[in-house]
Write a structure and sequence with these properties.
single chain; 431 residues; alpha+beta; FAD/NAD(P)-binding domain; 2 domains; five-stranded parallel sheet; globular
Length: 431
C-alpha cells in the first residue's frame, strides 16, 4: 500500500492524517518538534495552540459557529478533541490548550495507520503528500518550496497575548460578565475611567518594543495587530476596538466604563487568564510595567509574556488549484496557514479538504466541496486568481448571496443552506 507523507503536526496536518488514516490509507506524519522548536511553541505535542485558546463563536448563525458545524458533520478530529477539552467561555468555544494538544497527540499516535516521525524535513516531499508546516515553516523547507514553486514566499507578523495567573488578579476591582449578558459570565472585566485609560494609553504608545531584524519588514495581519500598533493609530482607537466597553456595566458604579480590558479563562481549572486582544511586541519589561497599570492587574503574575513571530504563507492563487492541490506537482498539496487560510479551525478545515481530495483521487474519484459551505468557499478563495492575495478567515462574505431583509435573517439563511449542503455532501461521500 502506498504511504502518504503529511509534513507538519499542527491542526491542518493532524486533521489531514486522521481523515486519510480513517479511510484506510497508511500515513507518515512528520513533525520537527521537539527536536527543532519554533519561537512560538513550548512543547512537542501535536496541534499545540500558540496564539489563543479560543476557537471562536459557537452559534451557527456566525461564521465561526457555522464552520464548526461543518467540521463536526465531517467527523473532524480537531473538533472532537476541542469539544472534549472545552472550558467555559460564554458563547464561544475555548479549550484547555494542554489538554487539547494531549488529546490530539494521543489520538494520532495511537492510530494503527499513522506513523509519527520526529525530524525536521528540509526537502520537498515525494507524492502523494500534504505539506502543512504552518506559518513558522523551517527556513530550509521554505527555501526548498521557493525553489520548487518558483515564487517568493510572502510573510506577515502575528503576535500572541500574555497569560497571567488568576490568583494574582485583584478581584475587588474586576467584575464577571459577557457583553450584553450573552451566555454565562465567563469573562473577567477590568474597567477603566478616563484618567486610567489616558495613563495606560500614554505608557503603551511610548513602550519599548522588540527590535525587528534588518531583513524583516513590518507587515502585520489586520485581524491580529499588536495592541501598541492599534494604539498608535489614535488616542481613542483602543476604546473603540479591543477595549470597547459596549454591552458592559460596572456593577460597582452602575455605569458603563470608559474602557474595559477583558480576561478570558485559559485553562479548565480557571488558574490562568489571557488578556483578550493584547497581542504585543513590547519587551517583557515593558509588558510587566504597562499592563500592571490596568485596574485589577497591579500585581499581575505573568505566566507567559506576549511574543512576536514571523508567519509565512505562499502566494496560493499562483501555485494551487482546487482543494489545495499544487498545480505543477500531481499528488502534492499545501494546506493550513502556509496555504493562506487564517485561523485555527480554518487550518484544520483546509487539511480536511486536502485529505479528502487526495483520498478520492487515489480511488479514481473526485470531490467537489459546495461553494455554499464555508469549507468550499474558503477553498475557492485561496485558489481563485488574485493579484493582491492575503490570508483569509472564514466569513459570510465568501459565500454566494442569500435573500433576507435583515442581517439576522441572512445569517440564518446562510447557516441553513450551508448545513443542508454539508449534510448532503457527507452522505454522498460515504455512499
Amino acid at each position: 500500500m502506498t504511504e502518504i507523507n503529511v509534513v507538519g503536526g499542527g491542526l491542518a496536518g493532524c486533521e489531514a492524517a486522521w481523515q486519510l488514516a480513517n479511510r484506510g490509507c497508511r500515513v507518515i506524519l512528520t513533525e520537527m518538534r521537539p527536536l527543532t522548536m519554533t519561537p512560538a511553541h513550548n512543547s512537542g505535542n501535536l496541534a499545540e495552540l500558540v496564539c489563543s485558546n479560543s476557537l471562536g463563536a459557537e452559534n451557527p448563525d456566525s461564521p465561526g459557529g457555522l464552520l464548526k458545524a461543518e467540521l463536526r458533520a465531517l467527523n473532524s478530529l480537531i473538533m472532537e478533541c476541542a469539544d472534549a477539552a472545552r472550558v467555559p467561555a460564554g458563547g464561544a468555544l475555548a479549550v484547555d490548550r494542554n489538554k487539547f494538544a494531549q488529546l490530539v497527540t494521543q489520538k494520532i499516535s495511537g492510530h494503527p495507520n499513522i506513523r509519527v516521525r520526529r525530524e525536521c524535513r528540509t526537502d520537498f516531499p515525494p507524492a502523494p503528500g500534504i505539506i502543512a508546516t504552518g506559518p513558522l515553516t523551517h527556513d530550509s523547507l521554505a527555501g526548498a518550496l521557493r525553489q520548487k514553486l518558483g515564487h517568493d514566499m510572502l510573510f506577515f507578523y502575528d503576535a500572541a497575548s500574555p497569560i497571567i495567573a488568576a490568583d494574582s488578579i485583584d478581584m475587588s476591582k474586576v467584575f464577571r460578565a459577557s457583553r450584553y449578558g450573552k451566555g454565562s459570565a465567563d469573562y473577567l472585566n477590568c474597567p477603566m475611567n478616563y484618567e486610567e485609560y489616558q495613563r495606560f494609553y500614554r505608557a503603551l504608545v511610548e513602550g519599548e518594543t522588540v527590535p525587528l531584524k534588518e531583513f524583516e519588514a513590518e507587515i502585520y495581519f489586520e485581524h491580529c495587530l499588536p495592541i501598541e500598533v492599534i494604539a498608535k493609530r489614535g488616542p481613542r482607537t483602543l476604546a473603540f476596538g479591543p477595549l470597547k466597553p459596549v454591552g458592559l456595566v460596572d456593577p460597582r458604579t452602575g455605569k458603563r466604563p470608559y474602557a474595559v480590558v477583558q480576561l478570558r479563562r485559559e485553562d479548565a481549572d480557571g488558574q490562568l487568564y489571557n488578556l483578550v486582544g493584547f497581542q504585543t511586541n513590547l519587551t517583557w519589561g515593558a509588558q510587566k510595567r504597562i499592563f500592571r497599570l490596568i485596574p485589577g492587574l497591579e500585581k499581575a503574575e505573568f505566566v507567559r509574556y506576549g511574543v512576536m513571530h514571523r508567519n509565512t504563507f505562499i502566494d496560493a492563487p499562483k501555485v494551487l488549484v482546487a482543494n489545495f492541490r499544487l498545480r505543477d506537482f500531481p499528488g502534492l498539496y499545501i494546506a493550513g496557514q502556509l496555504a493562506g487560510v487564517e485561523g485555527y479551525l480554518e487550518s484544520a478545515g483546509s487539511g480536511l479538504v486536502a485529505a479528502l481530495d487526495l483520498w478520492a483521487r487515489l480511488q479514481g474519484k473526485t470531490v467537489v466541496f459546495p461553494r455554499e459551505t464555508l469549507l468550499g468557499s474558503l477553498t475557492d478563495y485561496v485558489t481563485r486568481p488574485n493579484p493582491d492575495f492575503q490570508p483569509m478567515n472564514a466569513n459570510f462574505g465568501l459565500l454566494p448571496p442569500v435573500p433576507g431583509k435583515t442581517k439576522r435573517q441572512r445569517r440564518q439563511n446562510y447557516a441553513e443552506r450551508s448545513l443542508a449542503c454539508i449534510s448532503m455532501f457527507a452522505k454522498n461521500l460515504n455512499d
